[in-house]
């Protein structure tokens, strides 16, 4: 699974339902079915990760697989071996590869240019598809359905926002408002694709650069860290541009029935205040747990064809 856009609507909906099923299994104190017994999963993280790496490692082990972990200094890519050759070699020894490169999206196509090993994008420069699955799993568990959900996203149009836009707009009657600082919006290609999805599903998709354009009501207010993992900003005064887009108690007061989402890690006092992140309306840490359940769904679906 390289991109949310690679999934059919049916596959996307199925993965979110699967993740909810794994969450229900865990909540009941039961174990995941060992559908990956005898399989070997590699996890390759060039960049730091707390939630995604732990989510996929834990999910793989709970599904019965063995896990081999690679860090940024472990593979011969550091000495010049190509991504294509790395994928071809690993595919002879692994059943699946979960990778976070924070590099160009095309690298994942290179890893996947073989027919033996499943490849899962755990974050590239352009998209964080498994984060969107965790987000939708959270929406489903909070509301009971994703159809009709309203989400206000505030902050940088980063790879998590890209994946969210490509996912939520596929569900019927949803509303997604993406409010970003000028110059930090979603890529034009993502906007066009999300608009197309929204038209097909009867949903609303709005991108703007002023919180005055925010909706009158929403079910969720979502932000992410302003400094995305593996990136930097050319403008030395970028924080000044971002300050008006902080999620604080005043913004949440406009939406008294909304829950707060954050993909974590969070920098309290920057993109969100501690009062909101640690308050009663925050679902951020449930959202983090749902990364494990959605990771289990992706692994089971990719490697075992689980339904």
UniProtKB/TrEMBL annotation:
Signal peptide: none
InterPro entries referenced in this protein's UniProt entry, alphabetically: Asp/Orn_carbamoyltranf_P-bd, Asp/Orn_carbamoylTrfase, Asp/Orn_carbamoylTrfase_sf, Asp_carbamoyltransf_Asp/Orn-bd, Orn/put_carbamltrans
PROSITE patterns: CARBAMOYLTRANSFERASE
Cited Pfam families: OTCace, OTCace_N
Gene Ontology BP annotations: citrulline biosynthetic process; L-arginine biosynthetic process via ornithine
Domain of life: Bacteria
The keyword Transferase is assigned to this record: yes
Domain Aspartate/ornithine carbamoyltransferase carbamoyl-P binding: 2-139
Aspartate/ornithine carbamoyltransferase Asp/Orn-binding domain ranges (all copies): 148-302
Keyword tags: Transferase
Gene Ontology molecular-function annotations: amino acid binding; ornithine carbamoyltransferase activity
Family recorded in the similarity comment: Belongs to the aspartate/ornithine carbamoyltransferase superfamily.
PANTHER family (UniProt xref): ORNITHINE CARBAMOYLTRANSFERASE, MITOCHONDRIAL, ORNITHINE TRANSCARBAMYLASE, MITOCHONDRIAL
Protein name: Putative Ornithine carbamoyltransferase
Organism: Streptomyces aurantiacus JA 4570
């Amino acid at each position: 699974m390289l991109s949310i856009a690679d999934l059919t609507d049916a596959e996307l909906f199925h993965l979110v339902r699967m993740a909810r099923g794994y969450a229900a299994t865990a909540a009941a104190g039961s174990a995941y079915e060992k559908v990956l017994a005898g399989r070997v999963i590699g996890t390759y993280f060039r960049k730091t990760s707390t939630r995604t790496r732990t989510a996929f490692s834990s999910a793989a082990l709970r599904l019965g697989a063995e896990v081999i972990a690679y860090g940024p200094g472990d593979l011969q890519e550091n000495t010049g071996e190509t991504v294509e050759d790395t994928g071809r070699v690993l595919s002879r020894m692994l059943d699946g590869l979960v990778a976070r490169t924070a590099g160009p999206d095309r690298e994942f196509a290179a890893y996947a240019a073989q027919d033996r090993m499943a490849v899962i994008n755990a974050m590239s420069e352009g998209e964080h598809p498994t984060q969107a699955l965790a987000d939708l799993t959270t929406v489903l568990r909070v509301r009971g359905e994703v159809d009709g959900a309203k989400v206000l996203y505030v902050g940088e149009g980063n790879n998590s926002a890209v994946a969210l836009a490509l996912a939520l707009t596929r569900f019927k009657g949803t509303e997604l408002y993406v409010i970003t600082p000028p110059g930090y919006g979603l890529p034009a290609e993502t906007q066009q694709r999300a608009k197309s999805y929204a038209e097909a599903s009867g949903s609303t998709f709005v991108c703007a650069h002023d919180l005055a354009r925010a909706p009158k009501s929403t079910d969720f207010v979502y932000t992410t860290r302003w400094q995305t993992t593996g990136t930097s900003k050319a403008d030395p005064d970028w924080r000044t541009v971002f300050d008006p887009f902080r999620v604080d108690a005043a913004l949440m007061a406009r939406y008294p029935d909304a829950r707060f989402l954050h993909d974590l890690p969070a920098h309290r006092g920057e993109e969100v205040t501690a009062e909101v992140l640690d308050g009663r309306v925050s679902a951020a840490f449930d959202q983090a747990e749902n990364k494990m359940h959605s990771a289990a769904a992706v692994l089971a679906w990719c490697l075992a064809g689980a339904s």
